[in-house]
Design goal:
single chain; 184 residues; NADH Oxidase; 5-stranded antiparallel sheet; binds flavin mononucleotide
Length: 184
């Protein structure tokens, strides 16, 4: 398939099963992720890769961090949080590490982190690896960031679930450009 067509056919998939991407595949995806546009070469992107046993540890972190935020959570809700990372054989946590810079405001560093995640998603798609970018309130939970060892000036920007796609593959819908693109 020509490269542009392949790029256009990227579609997030939420039913992801084993096998997890291999170490070599993750390294390949990271090569792309670390090639995002980046004002002043601040390299604001950080990634943590969870697979196998570490997904169980991540589930424990999800539950603990949520409980610190809301001590009323039921056993059932905590169990659901524990099993959340097990929805895929690999979860990559993407974060942004903010550096104070006279010419590069925080927002630009967030944008660069977003571009980096998109590069990761496109690389996964090229390698026929299913993926979805998720957030939810845990993304903004400071207790979780502490458990993950994030620095004070570092924040989570997404949980990237990866694996083999199960079920019907959806295709992207056609988008009418005139609604979004103005030629001047
Ligand atoms: C920053 C960000 C956070 C997202 N968080 C979630 C999420 O928590 N749950 C979810 O189902 N989709 C989430 N999405 C949307 C999916 O990643 C995906 O973009 C959407 O399902 C559309 O599919 P597509 O990427 O194939 O067009 C998020 C997207 C972005 C950019």
């Amino acid at each position: 398939m020509p490269v542009l067509e392949t790029l256009m056919s990227r579609k997030s998939h939420n039913k992801l099963v084993a096998p997890a991407p291999s170490k070599t595949q993750v390294e390949q995806m990271m090569k792309f992720a670390l090639r995002a546009p980046d004002h002043a070469s601040l390299k604001p992107w950080r990634y943590q890769v969870f697979t196998g046993q570490s997904l169980i540890q991540l589930g424990e972190f999800f539950a603990k961090a949520s409980q610190w935020e809301d001590s009323e959570l039921s056993f059932d809700e905590l169990d659901k949080l524990k099993s959340r990372p097990l929805r895929a054989p690999m979860v990559i946590i993407a974060s942004v590490f903010i550096t104070e810079h006279p010419k590069v405001p925080e927002i630009e560093q967030y944008l660069s982190a977003g571009a980096s995640v998109q590069n990761l998603l496109l690389a996964a798609h090229f390698m026929n690896i299913g993926a979805i970018w998720r957030t939810d309130s845990l993304c903004f939970n400071r207790h979780l960031m502490d458990l993950l060892g994030l620095k004070e000036n570092e924040s989570i920007v997404g949980f990237i679930y990866l694996g083999k796609e199960e079920g019907k593959k959806r295709l992207p819908k056609h988008v009418e450009q005139s609604e979004f693109v103005a030629w001047k």
